[in-house]
Amino acid sequence: MPFLYFSQDCTRAAEQLKNNPRHKSYLEQVSLRQLEKLFGFLRGYLSGQSLAETMEQIRRETTIDPEEDLNKLDDKELAKRKSIMDELFEKNQKKKDDPNFVYDIEVEFPQDDQLQSCGWDTESADEF
């Protein structure tokens, strides 16, 4: 495998490898995300990082921080985060063919005696 791949970002390198006609038939069952992680591990190894450091870096790059402000990201990083969210959604989605699939689930939520009220949803006669 050419070392040219390791000088690029992992996403672009994975796309090039997956779309390469020589490798396409072997990699059609491998997700792009898996190839990106593989390139991340190889790049970390070649740059002298320990396995633990590389794994932590890949974990940070492939998980979504719920406190992160996505409005501050550039288009490329936002697209990457959306891709991660889409993949997680697809993985957790229940489909009709799944054995645990139940159509039209009704859930009763427990009524807490101390419901928190919000100021915006209280009706007032003075407002109308």
Automatic annotation (TrEMBL):
Principal subcellular localisation of the protein: cytoplasm
Pfam families the record matches: CEP19
Tree of life domain: Eukaryota
Protein's GO biological process: microtubule anchoring at centrosome; vesicle targeting, trans-Golgi to periciliary membrane compartment
InterPro entries to which the protein is assigned, alphabetical: CEP19
Subcellular location(s) of the protein: Cytoplasm, Cytoskeleton, Cilium basal body; Cytoplasm, Cytoskeleton, Microtubule organizing center, Centrosome, Centriole; Cytoplasm, Cytoskeleton, Spindle pole
A GO cellular component entry from the record: centriole
Record's keyword terms, sorted: Cell projection, Cilium, Cilium biogenesis/degradation, Cytoplasm, Cytoskeleton
Similarity field: Belongs to the CEP19 family.
PANTHER family: CENTROSOMAL PROTEIN OF 19 KDA (PTHR31539:SF1), CENTROSOMAL PROTEIN OF 19K CEP19 (PTHR31539)
Identification of the protein by name: Centrosomal protein of 19 kDa
Taxonomic placement: Eukaryota, Metazoa, Chordata, Craniata, Vertebrata
